[in-house]
């Protein structure tokens, strides 16, 4: 006998938890029409029981500050982990699975760090561990990779996966703000947290990329070896110069497949204005995929927020509620995914943007372009801008395609010249 | 005991059938890694057994020109209907379901016309009737509506669903071609069929919209009452004038929900250049959805073609192969979906574009704008263009938001004026 009620325990009742509870209440009849079951929030785990809440779910919901109250409740079908953080969330998910409860989570950091062991545990117990809300808010990328594109080999995936970083870069582009001012605007508008480190240093995007690599390639790419560069060092000058050349600077998370090896990383890059991701502005996220059958596919939507992420979490809950016997956590049959074959990040080939700061004296351009030539880097465009009193002039080079390794070697040589008066700025250009 | 082979019968071996067979062969190991089963094409139904084929699947595949050879084969798990057309395909799908076989189809016309009875039949037999390939090629819109956005009420859905029409309009926009020339280009490049009627008259987009309305709203909207306007009447002049005002003309399929009622239609419309769908060019498709939780979501990809559509068909096959007991054809629990509550199409409110052709004499602008005023239509912009020898000058009005009904009434009055020398052209403007 199928039961007609699905009991949920919410662990965490912040932005996303509250959003989820609101949607479940507002769309109750609609949800029942689709799954023929009633979703009931039975327990809510919070840190502070005395805190005043802006929204309280139905009368069945009991607030608690003890994890045991959830784990010991044999009526709970699905534990929804929305606390974030690593240790407590890890223990909660492990214990829930060990106790036979399905788990839905939006915890990207935890899945990036401990995904393989958690998916193995869920696999052994034949339980769901679902996570649509962990990547790109309401955009259905997890489902798309697990099911809709399942018959494709994904040859490349390029994402704008962090709304905070994208908002900051959009502000710097459209208003000419510097990084600090744009970050402040983001904080004022609620797009950046008090401590924005994870977002602006690219770590949040890295967590999401690890999850997407697992889904797209069925491989475990250790977070510790993923090259990650954030946007905290991005200068207004480079954003403006990029625009002059017809490019926009974005924080990109990318994985490409080359003969079974994966080339991945998170880095700021210049995108041509007519690139399909160039117009993804403000707090929006977007993912461009290429599959060997489907060709290019792009998904776009809000990458965060109470209701968009709540929508994704709800989709996972409904999938489990429809049929708890049909579990597909990773999209692959293995108990544990194999380690990724990793292509040396330095072997990545792309076009490049350089901005050198040099004394304005004869021979500078020739010396610098000479070093480029020695490293087999072909220059597509070079512009020397007038600087203050002839000192510290910016010299911008856009190159043709060259391996990152050669570029970094050339940069080391160039930055040794005594006429180079500041560190050279370097970004990749995506086509 | 689960069996390790899934036997397929392909009914139809044209573009999509061949593409599907190619992907199944090329990605064989990848598919098995995901579903732990081997997909075997056992029968292929074709009209002409003597025709030379560009691609032949593995040795297990037997070609036949008799439907009975498929229906009588008790080893077939899934019948993949890629014949197109109505009568034969309908009988094949009905018989397949009656014989206990799952069905995957990309036949949008059939699902639009006979969807409700076919889904009822599949529901009664607990069999899958899957159709990801029927809408927007490789874009995972069916899955997204059925599962990922299942907890959302969809408040609006706006799609560019026909690649042929979109290619033609893109050519008219970018190269200034007239309709006939752009259609010829489309034919030469293989984007338009010899008889392009279904594509250019909006019927193909209408079929897809009916399917999307079913998925998004759980309602049966009869094709016969859907307002459909194609692009065969679109003039180069209007494409050029739209561009001058900052708009691009697209063939739009749209459904909006207003208090439980649906307002739907297929029509050419002006989109502002910065609209997220305005940059969808050539043979690409795109769908912009708004859900009451997820907010706006956009999906983009190739709307047709052997491999993109093959990718979608393969996703359906793999979903059934993974678990044939877990069937979800419509995304709703009912045996038959209820009839849609339809909002009178004339009540649609939007901005409007008019181009009148008038004699160049005093009082014309005042008379025309007077009629607009009487019908409560407020003018946002008006431009009178110089015409040949002062005759037949084009007068363009862009209005503020007004109901379609008032606009059509005003147009009837205006076209009665004796100084109006040709039929007035009218398009909606989407914001």
Q: Can you give me a brief rundown of this structure?
A:
The structure is a homodimer of 431-residue chains. By secondary structure, the first copy, chain A, is of the alpha/beta class.
Model description:
By secondary structure, the first copy, chain A, is of the alpha/beta class. Helix content of chain A is 35%, strand content 26%. In chain A, the strands form two sheets. In chain A, strands 7, 8, 9, 10, 11, 12, 13, 14, 15 and 16 form a ten-stranded mixed sheet that branches. In chain A, strands 3-2-1-4-5-6 form a six-stranded parallel sheet, sandwiched between helices. In chain A, helix 1 packs across helix 12 (306-322), helix 4 packs parallel to helix 5 and helix 13 runs antiparallel to helix 14 (404-414). The longest helix of chain A is centred in the first third of the chain and has 17 residues, at 108-124. The N and C termini of chain A lie far apart (56 Å). The mean pLDDT of chain A is 95.
